[in-house]
Amino acid sequence: MNYRSNLGCMAFCIFFVIQASAQYSSDISQISNSKPILFKQVPQKSQCNIKALDKLFSAKGTVNLAISQGFFLRGELIENVQRNPSVQSINISLSDFPGAIFTLSRTKLENGSIRYNGHIISTDYRDAMVLSLENGKY
């Protein structure tokens, strides 16, 4: 009798776990797939022009600059902050990508070199664009 009770209890637990995990993964896929893609016309990878990136830190007001082959940044500079001598960050509201903000930081390292970190993100879309260093190029 105890054997049947344990078997029934185990079957119920397995059924409950399967149902719970099926519901959970289904909800996640619906959330991520419900938002459109923002950067579908932009290439997966493109080499950035370092001089163009550097010009962004002296920009004021409206920005209209090609940072790589065929990729223009158009929008309004909304923030330019330098909290210490080695790090400066800017935020640009992009007019070509509604609701998207481009954040770029320039860090002067101890050895004198400069490192850039940046991304474009919007809460209205499910993709983002990241500026990264790969093989010595951005």
What features would you describe in this structure?
The chain is α+β, with helices and mostly antiparallel strands and 138 residues long. Helix content is 28%, strand content 36%. It has a six-stranded antiparallel sheet with strand order 1-2-3-4-5-6, with helices on one face. The longest helix is centred in the first third of the chain and has 32 residues. It is elongated and about 75 Å long. It starts with a helix and ends in a 7-residue tail after the last strand.
Which features does this protein show?
138 residues
Kindly state the percentage of residues in helix: 25-40%
N to C succession of SSEs: HHEEEEEE
Q: How are the strands of the biggest sheet laid out side by side? A: 1-2-3-4-5-6
Largest sheet: 6 strands, antiparallel
Q: Structural class of the helix and strand makeup?
A: alpha+beta
Unreliably modeled segments: 23-31
Total E-strand runs? 6
Overall pLDDT score? 80
C-alpha termini separation: 69 Å
